[in-house]
């Protein structure tokens, strides 16, 4: 019986590793560059506008998980109209992710706008710090739920382990 349990455990681990690798490759568009990438949850509705099918990244609903490749050096030269870039906002003390609607190579600036916004921002090439490469709304909802309910989840996990320990103790006592 012990050999069978070990075999099942090995199969479960192999399946989990394969599923995780597949998810990472899907999220990073087949480029699992974890050193130059990060995940962010979008918390505002500025990018939740009308879908635009001509762009690779259409819209980004609130609570979406986005994969962001960091922009360094000349990488900003690869940004094109329609891409969603990140830039730091001192007033929000965090990053904003908006769509590039025009590029001025002479002044080295991007004109950006949230899909649901009416105003534009002008972002210098050196201020752009990332480009959104993928959006996963369901995963973002899970992350947002966990962040909002972390205390409840910790309590549930602790209670689960207490119950497993109690049942295990009762089974041992029953067998004795």
Q: What does this protein look like?
A:
With 176 residues, the chain is an alpha+beta fold. The chain folds into two domains: 1-31; 33-137, Umud Fragment, subunit A. The chain has helices spanning 2-27, 137-148, 150-175, and strands at residues 37-41, 65-70, 84-89, 94-104, 109-113, 121-124, 128-136. Strands 1-2-7-3-4-5-6 form a seven-stranded antiparallel beta sheet. A hairpin with a 4-residue loop joins β3 (84-89) and β4 (94-104). The two termini are 21 Å apart. 18% of the residues are buried. The mean pLDDT is 83.
Beta-strand share of residues: 25-35%
Count of helical segments? Answer: 3
Which overall shape is indicated by the principal axes computed on the Cα atoms?
Answer: elongated
SSE topology string: HEEEEEEEHH
Q: Under the CATH scheme, which architecture of the largest domain would be assigned?
A: Ribbon
The CATH first-level class of the largest domain comes to: Mainly Beta
Q: Structural class of the helix and strand makeup?
A: alpha+beta
- Radius of gyration, taken over Cα atoms and rounded to an integer in Å: 23 Å
Q: In the CATH hierarchy, what is the superfamily of the largest domain?
A: Umud Fragment, subunit A
Poorly predicted spans: none
Spatial ordering of strands, largest sheet: 1-2-7-3-4-5-6
Stated plainly, the CATH topology of the largest domain is called: Umud Fragment, subunit A
Distance between the termini: 21 Å
Number of domains: 2
Estimate the mean pLDDT confidence: 83
């Amino acid at each position: 019986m012990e050999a069978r349990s070990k075999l099942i455990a090995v199969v479960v681990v192999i399946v989990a590793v394969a599923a995780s690798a597949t998810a990472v490759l899907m999220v990073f568009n087949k480029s699992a560059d974890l050193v130059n990438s990060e995940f962010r949850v979008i918390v505002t509705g500025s990018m939740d506008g009308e879908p635009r099918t001509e762009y690779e990244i259409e819209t980004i609903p609130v609570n979406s998980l986005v994969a962001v490749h960091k922009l360094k050096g000349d990488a900003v030269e690869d940004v094109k109209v329609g891409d969603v870039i990140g830039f730091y906002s001192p007033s929000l003390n965090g990053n904003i992710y908006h769509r590039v609607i025009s590029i001025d190579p002479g002044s080295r600036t991007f004109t950006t706008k949230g899909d649901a916004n009416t105003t534009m921002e002008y972002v210098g090439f050196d201020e752009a710090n990332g480009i959104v490469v993928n959006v996963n709304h369901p995963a973002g909802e899970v992350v947002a739920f966990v962040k909002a309910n972390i205390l409840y989840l910790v309590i549930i996990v602790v209670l689960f382990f207490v119950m497993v320990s109690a049942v295990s103790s009762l089974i041992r006592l029953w067998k004795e």
